[in-house]
Design brief:
About 20% of the residues lie in helices and about 30% in strands. By secondary structure, the protein is α+β, with helices and mostly antiparallel strands.
């Protein structure tokens, strides 16, 4: 049974390897990609360095954690809407309740919500990250990613879970200073999100993750643990999220989806944004790790 998949360079050419019984071994190219994944076009690989374990053909990023929405909304108001933040803080102090505008919209409670990201700007762990020229507030988002290994349409949550090939650690890199204006446009994040995202170097088979809602996660910067979190507490299960994405829509092997930010696992929430010289490490136990050096532009 295939436990995990990775791709690396051997003699200048990509080599697919699978982990079986704890040992890595070569995978025959004549068998296609493992776990039902599509082949990776040569143009998707970087000229040097590590390789992605697979090439996402699309990217849907869900927002499954209410606590993340509340804490991130509060922090966004604090940073970019100071007058509104003072009024909201007064409301929360006087009532002991969350300011209503910090909570998700009503539709979020009824169905899984997602935005479509840029599947073509994913890079593997280890690639230095340089903020685009317009980004003055560079941030990370630690998420659990999952990729389909078979086609899917109008699936039940059980059928959707069975179609997941495996899980990866995912970093949805963000430019916070432009995000609020883009979200207010009504079209969702654009330049705030689409410039780069990253994946861990190994795809762990779904068979190795019996409960994706019970995983421990950590954010470390420069060797210091910033936050410890968990994948628990989703409003909608992963199966329900994938099933919703498939409603009236054909999904294919290789499509990547993610949970959205695990609670507390962004600098916006925990107060530690990225600056040049930082070394970022994002971990989900049992799934993998992403590391990046933050470089000056």
């Amino acid at each position: 049974m295939v436990e995990a998949v990775r791709r690396r360079r051997a003699g200048g050419a990509p080599l697919v390897e699978v982990r079986v019984d704890g040992e890595w071994q070569s995978w025959s190219a004549s068998d296609g990609m493992p776990l039902g994944l599509p082949e990776v076009p040569a143009w998707r690989d970087r000229a040097d360095g590590d390789l992605l374990p697979f090439a996402p053909v699309s990217f849907r990023d869900f927002m499954l954690y209410e606590q993340h929405v509340i804490d991130a909304s509060r922090a966004m108001a604090r940073a970019y809407l100071p007058s509104a933040y003072r009024a909201a803080s007064l409301f929360e102090r006087l009532t002991g309740r969350t300011f209503p505008r910090f909570k998700p919209a009503p539709l979020w409670y009824e169905q899984p919500i997602y935005y479509m990201g840029n599947a073509l700007t994913f890079v593997p762990s280890g690639v230095p990250i340089v903020a685009p020229t317009y980004a003055t507030a560079l941030d990370y988002e630690l998420e659990l990613g999952f990729v389909l290994g078979r086609p899917l349409r109008d699936a039940t949550p059980e059928e959707a879970m069975a179609a997941i090939a495996g899980y990866v650690v995912l970093n949805d890199v963000s430019a916070r200073n432009v995000q609020l204006a883009e979200m207010r446009s009504g079209f969702g994040p654009q330049k705030a999100k689409h410039f780069i995202s990253s994946l861990s170097l190994e795809l762990v088979s779904a068979s190795m993750i019996p409960d994706p809602a019970a995983l421990t996660a950590r954010v470390e910067i420069n060797g210091q643990e910033i936050v410890r979190s968990s994948s628990a507490g989703m409003r909608h299960s992963i199966g329900a999220a994938v099933a919703h994405a498939s409603r009236g829509e054909q999904l294919y092997a290789g499509e990547l989806l993610a949970t959205g930010t695990l609670p507390g696992c962004s600098g916006l929430e925990n107060g530690r944004l990225l600056v040049p010289g930082d070394h970022l490490k994002l971990t989900i136990d049992g799934v993998g790790t992403i590391v990046h050096d933050i470089a000056a532009g």
